[in-house]
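Annual report, structural modelling task.

Input specification for the adenosine-2'-5'-diphosphate complex:
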Amino acid sequence: MKNSFKLANGTQIPAIGFGTYKIPDGEDAYNSVKEALACGYRHIDTASLYGNEESVGRAIRDSGIAREDIWVTSKVWDDDQGYEKAKASIENSLKRLDIGYIDLMLIHWPIPEGFEGDWAELNLSTWRAFEEAYKEGKLRAIGVSNFMPKHLKPLLAKCEIAPMVNQMEIHPTYPQKETVDFCQNRGIVMEAWAPLGRAQDLEDPTINAVAAIYNKTPAQICLRWAYQHGIVTLPKSTHVERIRDNRKIFDFEIHKNEMELLDSLPDDKRISRHPDNLPR
Ligand code: A2P
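The model returned the following structure:
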């Protein structure tokens, strides 16, 4: 399939998804997802935490696009970690979305905020619920989010089915190279949340200089940079013209010199929570 990456189980995930974090449930979420689908997005990223699964599902059902042509990701939140709770959380997401199956379910964070127990065991117990739902066909693929190599290693050692995806904060000024290399070497596809660094990277002079060379926007440069590194991106915008423009990254290629320039940016501009709950 065009403009998509292949997961370890052979399914194809569209390389750009529409992120719905902080889009309020109701008309906002419904309209923005419908808009994104109308603009050509075929991949919607939500989570039980976002509280907008019902509207996301309704927008998908009303879109007139065949269910199998849309990729939908959701996530199990911190409070629902552990076998029984994760199982219930998956069922609740399936009910709220009401689109038959979910394409990808992720463990949202490796260590629930404030959790002081054995997080590796907790992840594994959640993972058993994921493996079960995957085998039952309720989930087409399963993965994790915000897992650094040290969080992945104990899971990889004991799981039956390896995570197929890891979704992290990734943008040119926070490329998380160690985690990306670790995952890609093991056939785990990386996804980038906040691929524009929540708009912070759009001010970066190097990114702007590269954008000028290619006659593209800084946002398109950030998204194309990730695509060329084999990373799925989940940009977010509340403006229709930006939603539309952010997808237009498949008609040009950033050459080696500019890729190297982008790869050499200082890599310390994390904008959100650290997987170990460290302060910013
Ligand atoms: P807005 O919703 O006003 O368009 P990220 O995807 O990294 O989380 O970044 C989202 C932020 O980037 C939002 O503040 C969004 O603002 C802004 N944004 C998204 N696309 C663009 C764009 N093409 N140009 C400028 N800002 C953008």
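The pocket of adenosine-2'-5'-diphosphate is lined by residues 19, 194-199, 202, 217, 219, 235-239, 242, 245-246 (CB under 6 Å).
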